[in-house]
Automatic annotation (TrEMBL):
Gene3D superfamilies: 3.60.21.10, Purple acid phosphatase-like, N-terminal
One Gene Ontology MF term: acid phosphatase activity
Domain DC1: 64-115, 126-167, 176-225, 331-378
UniProt keywords, alphabetically: Repeat, Secreted, Signal
Purple acid phosphatase N-terminal domain boundaries: 539-643
Main location: secreted
Domain Purple acid phosphatase Fn3-like residue range list: 435-476, 478-532
Cellular localization per UniProt: Secreted
Entry protein name: Inactive purple acid phosphatase 1
Amino acid sequence: MELQHWRHWQHPLVFNEDERSGLFCWGCREPAFGPSYSCMESDCDAYYYHHKSCAELPLGLHHPSHPNHPLILFSMYTYDGEEYDRFSKCDVCGEKSEEYSYCCYRCNFNIHIRCSSLSLTIQTEVHDHQLTRTWKLLKFTCDFCGKEGNLPYLCAQCDFGIHSRCAACPRILKVFRHNHPLHLTPSLEVHQSDSPICLLCVRKVDTLCLYYCSRCDFVAHLYCAMLPYNREYINLQELKEEQSTESKSEDLKLYQSFDSEICKVKKTTVGEDGTEIAIEIKHFSHEHDLKLTDEIPNNTKCNGVFRCATCDFVLDFKCATLPQTTWYNQHEHPFNLRYTLEDDSGEYYCEICEEERDPKQWFYYCAECSFPAHRDCILGENPNILGGMRGLNFISLAIFLVLTTLQEVWSHGDQPLSKIAIHKATVDLNHDAYVKASPTVLGLKEQATEWVTLEYSSPKPSADDWIGVFSPANFKCYQFANYSSPKYKDTGKGYLKLQLINQRLDFSFALFSSGLSNPKLVAVSNQVAFANPNAPVYPRLAQGKQWNEMTVTWTSGYGINEAGAFVEWGPKGGYQVHAPTGTLTFNQNSICGAPARTVGWRDPIFIHTSFLSELWPNAVYTYKLGHKLFNGTYVWSRQYQFRASPYPGQNSLQRVVIFGDMGKDEADGSNEYNNFQRGSLNTTRELIRDLKNIDLVLHIGDICYANGYISPWDQFTAQVEPIASTMPYMIVSYVDKGSFEEPMGRESLQKLWQKYKVDIAVYGHVHNYERTCPIYQTPVYTDVIEFLLQIKFLEFHYQDSSGLPTQGVDRLEHLDLQKLPCLTLPLALAVMKN
């Protein structure tokens, strides 16, 4: 069954009875499961997934919320700028959304499709009675979230009014950022939570309804938990049954844990609800029973202590209820509560915050690792230390990596963490400050790179304020906010445009004050993520072992246990076939030493390689990268093309670009770590402009200066993708040590060239410029360096502090090839390094 859809008129959409890809529906922006339509054409750069109900929406309707005129179905993707802001906001719910909407162009009235299809009466999980929709604009305060709105659902029995969005909230849901289900709860006061911060958006929560995990004290705003990129769609019935069993088991564990640490000798009942409290306990730290009292020996009053009547031992309620054994999220072993430790060093430090600890105070200790830590650092009760804070869940891992390997970071001076005193970072959240990122979903057309706009504001702007970009495993880059918006210091408002690349994880943005030496976290943005973080990205071509072979290599987040990788390829406009692929799993154990295994590590990736053979000489081929998931779903990259090599001996000019020491840089101008060679953007820009005049690229050494950090490799492959995906991009690695000097240069290398009949020897990163490298059998140039200097486009120097080349870059078409030796492939080519 096919459907010709107005949003994608080029191809028909094909019906699928049981879609399981989970890719976002273009209509409602929810994951597409079950009956759906999608485009199956191979040359289509987007699949246009639609739920069946979204694909079959009427193109126009009369709606009771706007009875005067008919409403027309449209997509907000047809607008940008101010029109986008106007048409993405619904006049019924007041929210902005990227879903389809119905619009009245006469009145500028707009209603989301989900709001247009709301039932007149509903039964919800959040209220016991039936609720009735009113279609008259009626200002009200929602009894569920406490915020104002219009067009409420009302309860005729108990004067209850609620937003339609709040009415849709389930009692239990699951989010990606937490292991346990979250329960809808009316107030934090019910649970006496210590975490007044939503751990999804890292902003303060109010006392009205929210989602909460009592096992971990995890708090989330209603709407944050309901966002598509936060919410994990699972079988709720199974979840409820599982949760019921787990809660009973958990209650038992907690009860047993309490009795193993504090034995309640006597207890009493207080209050109308029959709450039991212990008035006499037996604690592991003291030999006698301890009685609850509000008086201590110096006759001062307190909120309650347990005191020994025999020997005046006093234990306050907080210490008495400390767990004897506990776990810390970023440590593999349990910690035991200790008050003594045999230590002859006389030095007492906390291994988490690296500050001194009082030897007279209780602390937590891991005996297996000899790892002592403050109680507050382990339990997360000190909100001022970023490493131990339970709030900022999305950056706590990044900070912990820094804290546990701080000396290691400092030893690598080219890493920006060595410039930022992140171990001193404190939380100073301000309700009036904000950072907003848009769009929130990237790569909807299979792009691996996309620009994001940040809007930020602070009531106390300073020249020291800066924006940090966080991706869960580690920092990506940072940028001083006032550099991009000169009036920020005066107005307190600014904006940035940053280019993000698909690195398999989502992003958040944080506004810091007080500079780099004493950073204070002021505000944190919403999360931004690519539609498919695991998508195949950054293909690179390389010449195969034979003249008529081509190798394709790319990376993705799909391992061999999740999907089968392949390349769909064939003559341009002709029949396409599938080529099998080998997959290499690249994890932390695949690399050696620090910082690659410590602060430089980011996430595991999968490297795929496929071989395309029996190519016709000079023929143009198209290809795209594919993954077939084990549920039968296909995931595709966009389509690329390349030209095959000529037949050996064929009279065909092959234009080769050879360079080294390029590095990488950020197109958005941000101060990103390992920020080497600003001029590399000029190199790639010129190569991209000259693609039609290039047949082969040789990159000889000093590739991206990653220096042990994973992230720059993704950034480098994204930077060269327009080149490497369309022609052979051959990389020669080397170690920048030593140099070829006498007598090796004159005696050994020349014999080597003669033995293998080398036509041209190309050197990269040679620090001595002696005439020791003759080109075999040619009297024109007796020195490779002289040869390279004649071909000006091969010479790039980045001596200028601005990052621009100090000498001009000539394009290939401007070269007089009659004055240069012709390169005819195949030829014997020696590529030399130090």
